[in-house]
Amino acid sequence: MRPQSLDDYLGQDHLLGEDGVLRMAIARGRIPSFILWGPPGVGKTTLAGILAHTLQRPFFTLSAINSGVRDIRDTIQKADRQRFFDQPGPVLFIDEIHRFSKSQQDSLLGAVEKGIVTLIGATTENPGFEVIPALLSRCQVYTLAPLHKEQLIALVHKALREDDTLNKQDIVIEEYDALLAYSGGDARRLYNALEVVVQSGDANSPQRITNQIVTSQLQERIRMFDKGGDWHYDMASAMIKSIRGGDPHAAVYWMARMIEGGEDAKFIARRLVIAAAEDIGLANPNALLMATTAFQAVQAVGMPEGRIILSQAIIYLATSPKSNSAYLAIKDAQKLVRDSGDLPIPLHLRNAANQLMKTLDYGVGYLYPHDFPGNFTPQEYFPEELSGTVLYRPQQNPNEERSNQHMQRWWKDKTEK
Question: How confident is the chain (417 residues) per 10-residue block, as mean pLDDT?
Fold first, then answer.
């Protein structure tokens, strides 16, 4: 069922629609090196193959799971031998590029820089964290979105119509909700689920697929999907929500499910760092130190011992007091910036780095807090239009209640009572 052309490819209209950046690049006959970032099953690998075929380029592929630096260099040498004059280089597709080490990514730099290959990387992880800056600066990053309901239904119809096995059976989908819910916007998981449900019935009799049938069949086979790692976002969500809800038992359970399913320990550790800042925050600032230290320790120790470090960290986070005040503050601050635009920086807050700036009154009127009792004196730090704005709202926990007492002494008019 894998699409063979752009016309068969569903989704990603922002890239492949009439005015999509990749569609226009293909029309020009040249595509840049780029990284496709998106969840599993949205067509990253398929898209790379289609682009190479459409442009009639040699196509090489490597998997970051089982390829080393030597494999990369051998592939680049083969690609270099297939270059002709000023023609664009062959396409080198690297699946799960986020799993490449720094040395492996370094080995790609020269080939990408010289145009020996056009690199297409695929990743489910944020490239800003997982791809080295030198390589990232030589690539565009295109984000792929999960498939929406109409596209997933179209994929089901395509399978029932074109699959050599399914099109010989009398199959009617009476209800789609459960099937689409299990897919989570992932085409591969959708087809896996459809296959399991159809195989559970009699191939020689008409099949009517309902939500109840889908649910009962997939619950029995749920580990089949977990094993492939397609559910790792759902598992991560369950783990984080257990931490947020203060249940260390469930948090450790979901983490164990992820470890047993082969999840990357660094992926788990990163989620703990995020949870420490987003959900625990200033109620227990040590939580972020614990999570960051756990991430570094897991990197140094590796698995299986790393699981003990992760267990200690997740229990600490789950049993900590919770506050999302820092998360809400930056969220509100960003909205304020978008709504209010680029307001001028008050002169007294500007840095008078040279004589010209001094003549323009940069820094004039600034009150140096350390010159005052208690190392504090009230003055305006916002642009005039935003004076009195409150963004940080301390929550009810011992740490932030102490902070709020300081704030009330300092900023009587800018403190949440």
Answer: 80 83 84 88 86 84 79 86 72 87 86 88 85 89 86 87 82 84 80 83 78 76 45 80 90 88 86 93 92 93 89 93 90 87 85 80 87 85 85 82 79 61
DSSP class of residue 144 equals P
Distance of alpha carbon 176 from the chain centroid: 27
Strands ordered across the beta sheet of 59-63: 59-63, 91-95, 118-123, 34-37, 140-143
Sign of the C-alpha dihedral computed for residues 299, 302, 306 and 307 taken in this order: positive
First to last CA, the chain: 60
Is residue 19 located within the same domain as residue 136? yes
**Domain of 207, in residue numbers:** 149-227
Helices (H), 115-221: 127-130, 133-136, 149-162, 177-183, 187-199, 211-220
Q: What are the Cα distances from residue 414, in Å, to 194, 395, 403?
A: 57, 15, 13
pTM of the entire predicted model: 0.53
Report d(CA 244, CA 317) in Å as an integer.
8
The residue type found at 355 is Q
Taking the C-alpha atoms of residue 188 and residue 41, their distance in angstroms, rounded to an integer, is 5
Residue 207, token pair as written in the block: 């099949």
In three-state secondary structure terms, 325 is helix
Whose CA is closest to 327, among 398, 289, 277, 286? 277
Question: How long, in residues, is the chain?
Answer: 417
Is 36 exposed, middle or buried (CB count within 10 Å of its CB: 0-12, 13-18, 19+)?
buried
3 is a domain residue = no
Is residue 4 in some structural domain?
Answer: no
Which of 262, 279, 266 lies closest to 316, judged by CA?
Answer: 279
Asked whether residue 221 is domain-assigned, the answer is yes
Q: Is residue 51 situated within a structural domain?
A: yes
CATH label of the domain that carries residue 307: 1.20.272.10
Asked whether the beta carbons of 139 and 34 are under 8 A apart, the reply is yes
Matching residue, tokens 């040590």: 286
Contacts for 372 with CB less than 8 Å, ≥ 6 apart:
none
Q: Which two tokens stand for residue 163?
A: 């699959």
